[in-house]
Amino acid sequence: MTAAEVLKMVKDNEVKFVDFRFADTRGKEQHVTVPVSHFDMDKFESGHAFDGSSIAGWKGIESSDMLLMPDPNTANIDPFFEETTLFMQCDVIEPSDGKGYDRDPRSIAKRAEAYLKSSGMGDTAYFGPEPEFFIFDSIRWKIGMDGCFVKIESEEASWSTGEKFEGGNTGHRPTVKGGYFPVPPVDSFQDMRSEMCLILESLGIPVEVHHHEVAGAGQNEIGSKFSTLVERADWTQNMKYVIWNVAHTYGKTATFMPKPIVGDNGSGMHVHQSVWKDGKNLFAGDGYAGLSDFALYYIGGIIKHAKALNAITNPGTNSYKRLVPGFEAPVKLAYSARNRSASIRIPHVSNPKGRRVEARFPDPLANPYLCFSALLMAGLDGVQNKIHPGEAASKDLYHLPPEEDALIPTVCASLEEALDALNKDREFLTRGGVFSDAMIDAYIELKMQEVQRFRMTAHPVEYDMYYSL
């Protein structure tokens, strides 16, 4: 879509407001709205000025002027606002040089796509994320000097069998790890997911499947189609927005926290990816599971840089409540066809055009622009340096003999470990100016604040373990 077509869309739909959206470092979408009387072609040429100093991890107050440059190709009518509002994703531009701000996630993703082309290795990278999420009836928490708690309320949860509900307790609900995937009334979210899917498709995001996920207390997944790196990251932001807001209209609350419930499955975001050149899938070949050497080297790059990647693909302290050895999470840095215990899986496809690799350790807390860019840069480093990942894993990696288990590397065990790994292993991200050192430094500083806050807060489990000692 062109800028002129957006202006026509505004007129044809009698749009009252235009909403400019962008992602901060953590991936949280921000927005600013202008009435249609202040929206014209100049917004596409000169951008919309805003204060970048209030965005965590960004500019200081002394150099805070930034520009939002809307991308006309992302224009949509917002499905939730009462007044007709058109929204667009924006790049954050430095007014001094007119280039993408080095800490703007969407600009980083654009530079990653440009780097792929300039490297000559490929011209298009496709990504297909699978973000899982929970829907609860209500959530309450408190952190204070007098103590802390969290309380999840979910009529669908197994712990609600003894609760009294208005209209009665029907008794139909999934057991712990029993949500995959019985028909309603055990699955109580069919209509809500269907509504989410219809809204996503109205926004131009093709939906392929939706279903209840393994965890009993409202874990769900909506599978949507792959696309190019920047567009697929835009779609992921829109998916989160739709899921949050549809749940909200039902009086429920949705979360993409990787591990909100103790004792049940966490939420991952498996990321399917492939690299193409001149219309040809470079991952298709006659090697293991139909992979090319290019694809194997790409896997080698992801495995080599996995611990540094964790800081971006698993960016919360909560992420490492999911990535725990001995459970179902993909912590083992190995690759395999169809074997879901490996952190890199090669899905079975009948057509070589669909050949791809699936990184299974990322989670939906990740900023999609940074996550996809970092995975691509790691994979391309593997291709450039011919990093072979070794033999594929044929065994169940969850139940190996100790001597074999010790030989297979794992992902990080904490956010602090991941940030330390990123600090030491960052050069592959900075090639072609995709990520800057200043951006990585700011990212580590921002995330270390989260580590420090968590480290300094007493946890109820500690009272359980230590109060009487």
Count of alpha and pi helical runs: 14
- Assembly of the depicted chains: single chain
Instruction: Summarize the biggest pleated sheet.
Output: 10 strands, mixed
Q: Would you tell me which CATH topology of the largest domain applies?
A: Creatine Kinase, Chain A, domain 2
As a percent range, the share of strand residues is: 15-25%
Number of strands: 18
SS content category: alpha+beta
User: What's the CATH superfamily of the largest domain, by name?
Assistant: Glutamine synthetase/guanido kinase, catalytic domain
How far apart are the first and last residues' alpha carbons, in Å? Answer: 66 Å
Mean pLDDT: 95
Notes on the structure:
The chain is an alpha+beta fold and 469 residues long. The protein has helices at 3-12, 42-46, 105-119, 190-202, 229-249, 293-304, 306-313, 319-322, 368-384, 402-405, 415-424, 427-430, 437-455, 460-466; strands at residues 17-23, 29-35, 48-51, 65-70, 76-77, 85-93, 124-136, 138-144, 147-153, 207-212, 219-224, 227-228, 253-255, 269-277, 280-281, 332-337, 342-346, 357-359. The protein folds into two domains: 3-101, Glutamine synthetase, N-terminal domain (Ubiquitin-like (UB roll)), CATH 3.10.20; 124-467, Glutamine synthetase/guanido kinase, catalytic domain (Creatine Kinase, Chain A, domain 2, 2-Layer Sandwich), CATH 3.30.590.10. Helix content is 32%, strand content 22%. Strands 7, 10, 11, 12, 13, 14, 15, 16, 17 and 18 form a ten-stranded mixed β-sheet that branches. Strands 1, 2, 3, 4, 5 and 6 form a six-stranded mixed β-sheet that branches. A hairpin with a 5-residue loop joins strand 1 and strand 2 (29-35). The protein is globular and about 65 Å long. The model has no long low-confidence stretch (mean pLDDT 95).
